[in-house]
Design goal:
This protein is of the alpha/beta class and about 250 residues long. It has 9 helices and 6 strands; from the N terminus they run βααβαβαααβααββα.
Length: about 250
């Protein structure tokens, strides 16, 4: 029996007001990021809205039997708005979206709202620990390491394999979430996923796509088709943005 969906798309949300504020803070070499709200409530920027619309047009252009039919989403505002705008382009009702807190952004703890310079200034011991241990295992006080994110995503993978066999699933979440899903679905090592992270940042509204391959293993598995696919944005003439959501860790 097939264990997995037929297709799986994992998308990072569109550019957010927080991405813009972080870019501005880093250019000014500021210690903190001025977006005046909790991270869960940061909305899309106007560019992020257009990126989401462009992505929605691309999905709407697929054949009916190729489009997503299950919609899983982080409850954070920027992800919610991205998914809603994507579905609007295809005429899909937003009440079909399943919001799952396990898909939320990595929690930053005491690093929340800080640039890397801010972390080094306010928490030099933590900055040294981050450099020594690396972001895969380092957990800022009150926050999460990549391993912590992977732990909660393991249960999401179990849910997908149990409840959405043979379906076409679209997930909208966050940069680290995309990478941690790759770690899980492809059986990667710490070194391998960090090497992928070093090569390029996950772009806003970029698609990571998997298709079920029945020839892999005993019962088949999801095989990677494309990563960081931004052609829908380029076709619509929208800029590709890659500003991270978290204080930069060691590369």
């Amino acid at each position: 029996m097939q264990k997995w969906p037929d297709r799986l798309w994992i998308v990072r949300h569109g550019e957010s007001a927080g991405n813009v504020a972080r870019d501005r803070a880093q250019q000014a070499r500021a210690h903190s990021i001025d977006y005046e709200t909790r991270d869960a409530d940061v909305p899309l920027s106007s560019l992020g809205e257009r990126q989401s619309d462009a992505l929605g047009c691309w999905f709407a252009g697929l054949r009916d039997d190729e489009r997503p039919d299950v919609f899983l989403c982080s409850p954070y505002m920027r992800a919610r708005q991205t998914m809603q705008r994507v579905l609007q382009q295809g005429g899909v009702e937003p009440d079909r979206i399943v919001y799952d807190e396990r898909l939320r952004e990595r929690e930053f703890g005491i690093f929340d709202g800080l640039t890397r310079l801010g972390v080094e200034h306010l928490y030099p011991d933590q900055a040294r620990a981050l450099t020594l241990i690396g972001k895969f295992y380092h957990r800022p006080p009150g926050g999460e390491s990549w391993c912590d994110v992977i732990l909660r995503l393991r249960s999401v993978v179990d849910t997908i394999s149990r409840e959405y066999r043979g379906d076409r699933v679209l997930i909208v979440a966050h940069q680290v979430t995309v990478l941690c899903f790759r770690y899980l679905f492809e059986g990667l090592s710490e070194a391998e996923i960090l090497a992928i992270d070093r090569q390029q940042d996950v772009a806003n509204c970029a698609i990571t796509a998997y298709a079920f391959d029945p020839t892999c293993g005993n019962t088949g598995k999801l095989a990677l088709e494309r990563y960081n696919f931004v052609a829908p944005l380029l076709a619509a003439g929208e800029p590709v943005t890659t500003e991270p959501d978290v204080p930069a860790g060691p590369k």
